[in-house]
Design brief:
The complex is a heterodimer of chains A (225) and B (187). Chain A has 7 helices and no strands. By secondary structure, chain A is mainly α. Chain B is an all-alpha fold and 187 residues long. Classes of the chains: A mainly alpha (225), B mainly alpha (187).
Chain lengths: 225, 187
């Protein structure tokens, strides 16, 4: 076989680092790893923060409480699958599909929040305590979502995403929607001001965080002018 | 995908697998198989032979660093072209930041798809191809010149197979219209 045209500098660079490599695990196995780490992390956070199910859970129809949490979990897994696929060159998804899945995550969270408020008002929002309770819930949301976010982004950037901002955004959305699937069963407040500002805010914040990390990663890799 | 194309793809998969195991000869084989088509593809981005050669080297360095991200038996071509495309886009972005541009008379000829070769003289075709939007030109080059199927184009570019088909169709139509306009509708 002719290899005369292989430039010497490229040959030297390749020969200097030609150790055998193990191919990435298939996407479903990487998703399994991410889901396991996220679940263990979530359990640890729930124990440390002593999170318990909301007291009015029995007033909320099961399809809305456990059913919608399962739906949100399914969307979260789908988003993580998309992020991990996007991380491998040549297996990226159409941007429209990614946008649709991320939007579905946000829309389902908002609709579930409104439906829960219709069925049970939950613990009332006390005047002057909105900020404190909001910050408390936001920190719980972030803590619950952090393990999923960290493991997903680690798996994403261990590969070679050619659209890292999109991969990061999908990873952030998956972690955020997964965290909301849990917090939806835990947060005792149904007041829409609380839900839409703090819980939806954290969801959007984690998506933006993933996108921002992806953008920074890309900038670090880009050639300097 | 034709039998020949499938055999080519199978050969690429074997070379890639050997390369992942640390075999230099398989890397050389992969380079030899992909050098020319990749050069043409990269050329369509930068329209400069020297830069395309530099980019080819850069793309292969990225391929080397990311060789663990290839999972056999997936097709090799979409994986390789996605990495090469990324290298080209990074280069163009960096060039835009430097506000560096080639003058029109420095632009070399673009490869012409066989479907439109007979529609006008070579000089006109090169000029009109250069006037197409980069997205349209890229799909034309991949499909009509390098023989990619629409599914492979979709995988390499991160777009739906249908989108790839539509882009190729529109690009060819735009090229025909430009030729028609240039020759008074008698193409």
């Amino acid at each position: 076989m002719s290899s005369g045209s292989l430039p010497q500098s490229l040959r030297r660079a390749v020969e200097a680092d030609l150790t055998p490599v193990r191919p990435l695990l298939p996407t479903w196995m990487r998703v399994l790893v991410a889901a396991t780490v996220a679940a263990l992390g979530l359990a640890a956070v729930a124990v440390v923060l002593q999170l318990t199910l909301r007291p009015d859970l029995h007033q909320i129809p099961r399809w809305l409480s456990w059913g919608c949490s399962a739906l949100q979990l399914a969307i979260a897994v789908l988003l993580i699958v998309m992020a991990l696929r996007e991380a491998v060159p040549g297996s990226g998804l159409p941007k429209g599909a990614a946008a649709l899945a991320a939007t579905a995550g946000v829309v389902v969270q908002v609709v579930v929040g409104i439906a829960t408020w219709v069925h049970s008002p939950g613990v009332p929002l006390l005047p002057g305590r909105g900020l404190a309770s909001g910050l408390g819930c936001a920190s719980h949301d972030a803590a619950v979502g952090a393990p999923a976010l960290i493991i997903t982004l680690w798996l994403v950037f261990r590969a070679l995403p050619v659209r890292p901002a999109l991969a990061g955004l999908l990873g952030g959305a998956g972690a955020a929607v997964g965290a909301d699937a849990f917090n939806h069963l835990v947060c005792p407040m149904s007041d829409l001001r609380h839900v839409l500002v703090w819980h939806t805010g954290v969801l959007l914040g984690l998506m933006l965080l993933g996108w921002g990390i992806g953008t920074m990663w890309e900038r670090r890799r880009s050639p300097r002018p | 995908m034709g039998a020949e194309r499938r055999a080519d793809e199978q050969r690429l998969i074997e070379l890639m697998t050997g390369y992942q195991k640390g075999n230099m000869r398989d890397f050389e084989g992969l380079y030899a198989e992909l050098e020319q088509p990749l050069l043409r593809y990269l050329w369509s981005f930068v329209r400069d032979a020297t830069t395309a050669r530099d980019l080819l080297q850069d793309a292969f360095l990225q391929i080397h660093r990311a060789r663990h991200t290839y999972t056999p038996p997936r097709p090799v071509r979409p994986w390789v072209y996605a990495i090469s495309r990324h290298a080209a886009l990074m280069h163009l972005r960096s060039r835009r930041r430097r506000k560096e541009q080639l003058a029109d008379d420095q632009l070399p000829e673009l490869p012409v798809p066989p479907e439109v070769e007979k529609l006008a003289d070579a000089a006109t075709l090169h000029r009109l191809l250069g006037g197409l939007r980069p997205q349209a030109r890229e799909v034309l080059v991949l499909h009509h010149l390098l023989g990619f199927g629409f599914e492979e184009i979709g995988q390499a570019l991160g777009i739906a197979t249908g989108t790839a088909k539509v882009r190729a169709h529109r690009a060819l139509k735009a090229l025909r219209e430009k030729i028609g306009a240039g020759t008074g509708g008698h193409s």
